[in-house]
Amino acid sequence: MASSKPQGSSFATSSRTHLRPSGVTIDDSFITETKNSQKNKLSQKRKTLSCQFSIGGHLSPWPTYTSGQTILHNRKPCSDDCRKRAGSWQQQPLGTTKPWYLEQLENYLRKELLLLDLGTDSAQELRLQPYREIFEFFIEDFKTYKPLLSSIKNAYEVMLAHQREKIRALEPLKAKLVTVNEDCNERILAMRAEERYEISMLKKEKMNLLKLIDKKNEEKISLQTEVTKLRKKLAEEYLHYLTERDARKILIADLNELRYQREDMSLAQSPGIWGEDPVKLTLALKMTRQDLTRTQMELNTMKANFGDVVPRRDFEMQEKTNRDLQEQLDSLRDDYEEVRKEHEILLQLHMSTLKERDQFYSELQEIQRTSTPRPDWTKCEDVVSGGPDRWHMLAEGKNSDQLVDVLLEEIGEGLLREKDFFPGLGYGEAIPPFLRFDGIVENKKPTKKDVVNLLKDAWKERLAEEQKEKFPDFFFNFLERRFGPGDAMAWAYTIFENIKLFRSNEVMSQFYAVLMGKRSEIVYIKHKETVAQLLKEMTNVDSQNEGLLTMEQLSTVLKSIFPFKKEEKIQELMEAGGWHPNSSNADFLNYRSLFMEDEEGQSMHFVQKLWEQYMDEKDEYLQELKQELGLELRDEVTLCKVREALMNIDPGLDKQTLNSYLSQAFQLPVTELPEEGEKEEGIVTRLQAALEQLQMADIRRMGAREHEPAS
User: Fold this and answer.
1) Residue 437: DSSP 8-state
2) Distant-in-sequence, close-in-space partners of 602: CB < 8 Å, separation ≥ 6
3) Which of 213, 407, 671, 710 qualifies as a cystine partner to 704, CB 3.0-4.6 A?
């Protein structure tokens, strides 16, 4: 009897001879090999069982509620007696016996399950195999239901294969989940440690504040006690003076009464002197005194009520005078505002004129120094390696001073190649930490390209770390990690000599300035961030991702990134990018080419112009600061004056940026800077030193000038 196996089934037939120990994985090759070896045995077993247990392809009518303890005896499989008895089932009583076919299948299933090792996950799949065989027996024996049963079996096999493939696909995710779980646990532990430390610090701060509160409460209680005593004393003094006042008034009244009585008595004793009735005179005197008292009271009331009253005529005259003066003040104020604006414009013109004058003067001195005699630079064509073509490439667009630098670099490069060793500079304090060595070190003789690539790798590692150590220490540690402790000093001397020589290479010159402390590394970092932001904005504008922009789009991007640049500066950047005044704004530009670099790290003219404008704007900013202070370079300046001058020339400065500028100028930590108006007069430095420190840092304008709007 042939075996009915569905297509695509990944389950192999199970046999006692092919069971494996617990923990061993069954792969597809083993299952394939096992299929062929078990196929014949399984087919023979099916034939035997079907011949023994089937009765003409009919289902036995044995009821499910019987106990099934008895079995049919004296039955011969595949005999004529079976066929005869099959037709007589309807007449014979069913009884309570279980069909032989069913009992034999159950025994076979029980034996097969006992032979399986179900302790592993893979054995759980083999558990299905006996059930699969039993089901195949049914499919083969009952021909009428074979198509339906086969489709059911195939559907389950396909679903099992699909579920197994899904489980296999989820296995890597399980491993990744474990890794992510461990990483998250580590982060949680670190965050908990930080929280515990922060909580301990906050508890300490809380205890200190509680002590301070207790101290303040004690002071408050003592002050309240003192205030209570003073109030009590004041009340006593008030009662004392009140009593004195009342006694004085009573005394004055008694004195007046005595005086009046004496006068009355004198008049009564000498009536003949006046020639009138004393009673009448006394009555008249009393009435007169009453009138005098009443008049005096009215006079005092009038003075109190109308002492500050101005006559209407005087008020109107003063009001007219005030109106005239107000009109004159408004007119003078308008005139002053116009004069102030003209003064600011003249100051700007004066500053630009001074700058142009200084520039022209320096150029004049340079021209006077180099113009006689005019050097013949064509003589260098045969001296420089590479011949006339390379010399023309090096000399293109450079003045005489720059050509001298190029020639010195070419000569120095040849001399540097001839050196096999460098003498150590010793351990002096003036020697940079990465060059402190006594003896001779080997010259590694790298190419300019190798040096540039090494410096770029150093910058990448520096930007990736938290920048806890100083830049010279980081540089030497980077060389130790790259070349080992034995060759680190040799590479330090080699790279230092190269970057000191090749000043025209922007990567080397910028690295040399940061390494020697002439420029803060944040300047380089901010410049790279600005270039990256500019490229990102251009990419966002390029919605089609074609790498092309119109000149109008380029101008819009530049104005959005640099809102405080003047219009002529924007035009310079566009010209550096390839735009010409005679060209149309609809012309397309390959903006990605503006940010490319050659093999020696040299940027395109656009990025170079961006760096030149940044340095010029920084010089202009510091020159405005110097003019605002109105001091000479050798004079001393206070922190208060520098703060006020920075706010005047750049009102858009926020508090954090202003404090960082002051910290750089006066070489103080930001946390030690006093608040505005708090003991700032005691912090002084020389103006030249402050400007030099600001020149090293990243200084840029944060807002529009007062006399010009933002772009």
Assistant:
1) B
2) 505, 506, 507
3) 710
The answer to whether the CB of 400 falls within 8 A of the CB of 419 is no
pLDDT tens-digit series, residues 220-274 = 999 999 899 998 998 888 888 888 888 888 888 888 888 888 877 776 665 554 4
Furthest CA-CA distance within the chain: 191
Rounded Cα gap, residues 588 and 549, in angstroms: 5
Closest CA to 75 of 46, 95, 104, 47: 104
Grouping H, G, I as helix, E, B as strand and the rest as coil, residue 636 is strand
Neighbours of 629 (CB within 10 A): 20
User: Is the four-CA dihedral 467, 472, 477, 482 of positive or negative sign?
Assistant: positive
**Contact 381/370 with Cβ under 8 angstroms?**
no
- Residue 68 gets the label, from left (phi > 0), alpha (psi -120 to 50) or beta, of left
Cα of first residue to Cα of last residue in the chain, in angstroms, is 92
Q: What is the pLDDT of residues 114-152, one digit of tens each?
A: 887 655 555 667 778 888 888 888 888 888 888 988 888
CB 569 within 8 A of CB 711: no
Residue type, 453: N
The closest alpha carbon to 592, from 539, 641, 523, belongs to: 539
Element (H, E) at 685: strand 684-686
